[in-house]
Amino acid sequence: MKVPQGDTYHLxxxxxxxxxxxxxxxxxxxxxxxxxxxxxxxxxxxxxxEDHNSITGLNYVPIVATSxxxxxxxxxxxxxxxxxxxxxxxxxxxxxGHFRCVAAEGAAGTQDVNVASxxxxxxxxxxxDDGALTSDKVTSVGSVxxxxxxxxxxxxxxxxxxxxxxxDTHSLQDIMTNTAWDTVTGHATxxxxxxxxxxxxxxxxxxxxxxxxxxxxxxxxxxxxxxALIVADTGELQSDWADGGRxxxxxxxxxxxxxxxxxxxxAAAQTDLDTLTDTSAEPTGVPAASATLLTKVGYLYMALxxxxxxxxxxKTFHADGGIAEWEKDLSESGGTYSESEGNAI
Length: 345
Known about the structure:
- The protein is α+β, with helices and mostly antiparallel strands.
- Among the domains are: 110 residues, Immunoglobulin-like (Sandwich), CATH 2.60.40; 63 residues, no CATH class; 47 residues, no CATH class.
- It is built from seven helices and 14 strands.
- Strands 1, 3, 4, 6, 7 and 8 form a six-stranded mixed sheet that branches. A four-stranded antiparallel sheet has the order 11-12-13-14, with no helix packed on it. A two-stranded antiparallel sheet has the order 2-5.
- A hairpin with a 2-residue loop joins strand 6 and strand 7.
- It is elongated, with a radius of gyration of 61 Å.
């Protein structure tokens, strides 16, 4: 715990009954404060408010940490009960608090500067409250920053800015008034600013004002022309896709073929396939010259499977049931055997 010098440390602590360990009322108590472990307290007989806020065992003691009471910034302090009992049992010697006294605060929460750590008078906030260092404020700073630290700062400026800045002749105040920069090379002179401005003009011309074909502007114009062609092609495609356009008509034809014509062809092919693969009855009568393939195959199957009667003049073909269906006339002449076309019986 850190307590600014001059403030009051509001210490709360609890006392307990030795027999039960529960909070117990402290009676007739005072505390003493010891500094850095010394044997003699710097403050004694500090009054204690017992059962603070009517809470049993809760005790309150204010420690006024002023220099007049012996409190020094940077020292450590212990608060010890020097008189008092709990349930008639002495609690003398109980340590109830520790804290360190730190530098005083000019405003609550803002610690004062320890002026003993600088070589000149302490800086006040007034030297900086404008948000910018004016020449008079630089002078104030110079009275605090010692010579060695100023040398480090000026060496850094020489390293950054190069020749022309001489730390032995130029001060921090010179920096603020710009007198040190008049001869310094490496910083942005007016001539260098003119070069920068000219370069910006060239970039602006290349990007914005130059004619087509000269530089970046030409490339931008060319890209714009290509973009116009792409837009035109896109518009043509949109017309083709419109209802009645070329691509739309092609799409309609494809849709008609895939939804009507092609399914019909597939259905017909399936019917023919079913006819070829399904069982069928035997053909009857005399085979015709223009019969279907299925009928012609049926007659061949009958001739191979069923009864065939052959005499000297007739070849008779029968159905599965034995009925004669058709016949051929047979003849022989000069060693040539002949069969006529099929005919009715």
